[in-house]
């Protein structure tokens, strides 16, 4: 029975080639638009650390004065130098990473080699295991390297390709900000989006080229900036860009907490710390802390650009219009075959059979539209990747999403076909046969 | 002949296809709603990209200089400005923030103890010759004079610094008196207003607060790197900037020159993402219009085929080809008009949704009118093919079918 309906459907396609082609094209275009936009959104709103996003947390405390005009209630995103240091030493049992963004002048040890500015992340050892950073050569520096301010550096594969032609450069040296640094590791291309660990300069974009120990970097001879700083109050040190100023937040801190119990304990620890700082007179506000995991943090910071969410909604609106269009055309297609349907009904086909055949035909059109639409999704994403938008370059499509696209096309068109099929099934055999 | 008499067969035909007509009306209405709102978004962004910063962006350029290690002695503001002034074609040079680069959004107070906050504003802080280099448009008062600008290295938050304020912010802060001579405070400066300028935007976001700006000038002799500014004769920046960059490099051999571009190039680059998003939205618009045209055209050809016999009969009874053509065109006009009526409401409804969820501004009614025109045009274009086919139906069809 099903195969008969199938055969009839294929015959139907051949009978109304133009109409069928129009429908397939409309469904394909709709799927192409909706799924490319959805893929962009999915990429931007996805969990950048899928394997461990719910075990990595971002602690915040509030060192601001009690009366700060125009201040939000939530604590600052970043930590002051003092709080960063305190929290880093407070709970040493955990995997943790203190960090900040910067860029540093760098050149190879070959005399006369050109100076280049490279984007830098200064951090502590925990960064690499906690965020699952993959190494091509070597390994992260050690905890001791952190404490004794060792001049060691981890570089990106891209920089390694440029400077050393891709060879294993572990043990070689670089001059960074006039100091000699030893390379201990080269990391594979690694750039999760959004780069949740530091959203100060936007949530999407290129990866850092060099990683060096936080405390080594903090004590470099010259000021190359300490990432975006947020300062308040009548700050006597303002303008001198002093990272140790008590009223400036700029350091990011992340900590790994594996169980809900650990999360609770750590939150209590933050509260106790705030109370203690309050008692010491450093904090003026009542304890005001946040402890978000990766997705909570990204949602709190509203990282997905409004325009991307909006264009995804609009794209699905366009898909709905395409489906409405399909309903109209399917209606035309089925009713045009009124004569044929009437004859079948007169020869004993049940309403059910006519209905089933029309629905199957709709689903087939949808499937065909999906198949034609997949290259369009791919083309759309390729075009989006060419765009100079910070998040565009990393947009990827997964096979699972392609499968969803196909299913969506088939199911949506099947649903669109139900009402026209019901209309077709209602055709009274006697009247039609009489008019033939 | 009564022109309305020819509409009668159209309405009776439409009544026989209530379902299909309803679908088409709905599709046209939705298309119009999405089209109007998309065009509004795209146009708004395009207008924003052309918004004036208040600075001749083609004739002002930035050279970012960074000090490496021990080279700091040569790289002083005083020396570098002297070097830049010798570059042929440079009219003025200074050091400081520009629109979209480095102006800080600071709380502004009306008293020296900084307890009464009266506004937030972009504070443009720069070195000697700053206002001349940015070439701001002075409306009243005077530009900071060499004699009245304090030395930044010895200045405290209470040292009076001459400041220029935008007319917009001056009107808001001093609605009933002249702003000139008043003193405003941010965290680090006491700013005495000596002049009022036209536009000076710290950012380009479309909010009117972009133009709430204060410009201050202090003398810097020694500072380690930052944004140097030059202004060239009109239209000459392309020649002047490379020369200026070379001169800077030569004067400071240990330094790295970072970003170097005219302000206009920087702004164009900063809006590259917006332009890309506009291209994406325009592509969606085009696809939407194609799909809707396919739908209109498809249903029209279905009707033509279904009514072949009627058309033949009307032709046999003396209807001209033109009459048949006009029949289908008029039918389309009626359907699209119903869609437009519903679409006008949906356009506004969708805009309200976008305002609520995506902080979009209110849509002006021209977009409704434009959407309606676009739909009428689209309908007529889409129906032309099927209608011409209908007009070619020979009168003999009527006899053959009978």
From TrEMBL, chain A:
Domain of life: Bacteria
Positions of the ABC3 transporter permease C-terminal domain: 314-429
InterPro entries on file: ABC3_permease_C, MacB_PCD, Macrolide_Exporter_MacB
UniProt main location, coarse: membrane
A Pfam cross-reference name: MacB_PCD
Transmembrane segments: 21-41, 313-334, 354-381, 401-422
Keyword Nucleotide-binding attached: yes
Record membrane topology: Multi-pass membrane protein
Protein localization: Cell membrane
Protein name: ABC transporter ATP-binding protein
Domain MacB-like periplasmic core: 20-217
The keyword tRNA-binding is assigned to this record: no
Gene Ontology CC terms, in alphabetical order: plasma membrane
Gene Ontology MF annotations: ATP binding; transmembrane transporter activity
UniProt keyword annotations, A-Z: ATP-binding, Cell membrane, Membrane, Nucleotide-binding, Transmembrane, Transmembrane helix
Automatic annotation (TrEMBL), chain B:
A Pfam family the protein falls into: FtsX
Keyword Membrane in record: yes
GO molecular function: transmembrane transporter activity
Record bears the keyword Transmembrane helix: yes
Similarity field: Belongs to the ABC-4 integral membrane protein family.
Cellular component annotations (GO), alphabetically ordered: plasma membrane
Domain named ABC3 transporter permease C-terminal: residues: 283-395
Membrane topology (UniProt): Multi-pass membrane protein
Annotated localization: Cell membrane
Keywords: Cell membrane, Membrane, Transmembrane, Transmembrane helix
Chain ranges passing through the membrane: 21-42, 280-304, 333-355, 367-391
Protein name: ABC3 transporter permease C-terminal domain-containing protein
